[in-house]
Amino acid sequence: MDRSNRRTFLADVSRGMLIAGVGYGTAVDLGLTRACAAEAEAAAATPLTFGAREELVCLLQETPIDKLLPLLVARLNQGQDLKELIAAGALANARTFGGEDYIGFHTFMAMSPALAMSQELPAERRALPVLKVLYRNTKRLQDQGGRKNEKLATVIPSDGKPAAQAGERLRAAVEQRNYQAAEAALAAAGDADAAFNALLDTVTEGADVHRIVLASRCVDMLKIVGLEQAQTMLRQSVHYCVKEEAWNRKRHPEIRTLLPRLLDQHKLAGKQAGTRAAEDAWVEELSRTIFQATPARAADAVAAALAEGFEPDAVGLAIALATNELILRDSGRTGKQVQAGKPEGSVHGDSIGVHACDSAHAWRTMAAAANHRNRNACLILAGYQAALDRIERGGDFLNWQPRPTDEVLKRVAANDAESLLKELNGSIRENDQERACAVVRRISMLGYPPRPVFETLLKYACSEEGALHAEKFYRTTSEEFAAARPAHKWRQLIALARVTASEANQPAAGYAEASELLGVTS
Questions:
Q1: Kind and range of the H or E element at 166?
Q2: CB 319 within 8 Å of CB 479
Q3: DSSP assigned state of 125
Q4: 289-320 per-residue burial string, b: 16 or more CB within 10 A, e: under 16
Q5: Which residue in 216, 227, 237, 361 could disulfide with 476, CB within 3.0 to 4.6 Å?
């Protein structure tokens, strides 16, 4: 994860939010125009449009699903850019669902990872993950009524209160479940950096995976859709928080008192990022504390580490290792956890470990782009949620052993890279999670490079449905692997191998058709 560039990126975003991009209501809030009450009501009823992209956005909303992929491949052959396709898909998704539809926001969260995955593929296969996600997007848009049920219109102007109060007003509006007031408060925050931090004041009042990952992916999408669409992206997170407020408050009531108490107790509200280096052993010890602790104790441990001046990245690495343990130790779905596409023993999709790793990654990503208060808040809640995920959905994680076990590792006898990669591919095709983990561990022990392993796993992240999580989790793991220290990197890749073996043999809708149209083997 390139954390230094994320903060710079948000600063760049802040300079680009003008009337053309943020809509009439936001322009009023920023003092760029004036409107009376009647004009405000008219603005509220005005559909959201996207300028030069509108034609492509409408095409992705309105094209019959059986005609979509041939049309998109024809456009690609004419020079259409994959980034523009994803941008249009994201805008169509945001305008229609506004962060309120389960499959809809999962599809949105898969878009920027799909585009990133495309850059890892040979030229002839590069469009596959993008076409796969856009197929899913258009199908869901049409299943839910298409343009007839759009959630986002132009923003209703606020009452002109100071931008400095935007975070507080946004939080109050969400607690009152007032969509209109919440959107107005976000619009009044000012530039994108201020809007993002105002939003974080609300996001940090919960520890629900979708609340966290959606907010993170909204920010991530800005580098694709452009600076002018910052409000459109962030409004999705606002809508999600408003819709889920009653459930969130009931589920995690202690967060709203615990977080301010820890920030005050450890004097972290305005504390700048620490520079104290941490040894690998320190990272592992903090990771163990977080993994074994209660949520409140884990949060306190993170707060204490930040107060002692340790680098935020070192703290974040410890949290990522703790959530990685949840994938490596999970015994898999049983009983009522088994669903269509998620059989007994599976760990893909919305499993405890996948959700935990995606949440930790999202918290860390947002922390890197936030102001001092919200950086510390994000990391404290990342620790809280890591511990919460271990206990909230059951399981004996403290006693279950991480993969691969010594017994399974001994069965992997191959020594050359080619044979090991072939065995890894076979393990995935057979849904053999245990052997897949052992093979990747063997590859790491022999000192072979990780790239061929990633390429093997990427193939399945592109082709399989993954219960809506394949693209997102592949990207999470890729970035965590890149950020991790040498002593810890391969744990991330072992976890990805396990999830890949779990999700195999459930091909994504549209993937075979896309492969045929592109002239590549599926």
A1: helix 166-175
A2: no
A3: G
A4: bbbebebbebbbbbbbbbbeebbbbbbbbbbb
A5: 361
Closest CA to 299 of 269, 253, 329, 254: 254
Separation of alpha carbons 369 and 283, rounded Å: 22
Q: Which residue has the tokens 């391969």?
A: 490
| CB-based contact 514:71 (threshold 8 Å) | no
Q: What are phi and psi of 332, to 5 degrees?
A: 95, 170
Q: State how far the Cα of 149 lies from the Cα of 151, in Å rounded to an integer.
A: 6
The token pair that represents 461 in the structure block: 């992240």
pLDDT band (50, 70, 90) for residue 163: confident
End-to-end CA distance of the chain: 30
| Residue 467 · residue 511 · CB < 8 Å | no
Residues 385 and 363: beta-carbon distance below 8 Å? yes
Residue range(s) defining the domain that contains residue 122: 51-149
What number of residues does the chain have? 522
Residues in contact with 260: Cβ distance below 8 Å, sequence separation at least 6, in sequence order: none
SS3 state of residue 63: coil
Q: Are 148 and 115 in contact (CB under 8 A)?
A: no
Domain membership flag for residue 466? yes
- At 74-123, the pLDDT tens digits run 999 999 999 999 999 999 999 999 999 999 999 999 999 999 999 999 99
What CATH number is attached to the domain comprising 219?
1.20.272
Q: State how many domains the chain has.
A: 4
Q: Is residue 173 part of a domain?
A: yes
Report the C-alpha gap between 386 and 198 in whole angstroms.
24
- The residues that bridge with 464 in the sheet, in sequence order, are 507
C-beta of residue 112 within 8 angstroms of C-beta of residue 217: yes
Share the mean pLDDT of the chain: 91
Do 343 and 358 lie in one domain? The reply is yes
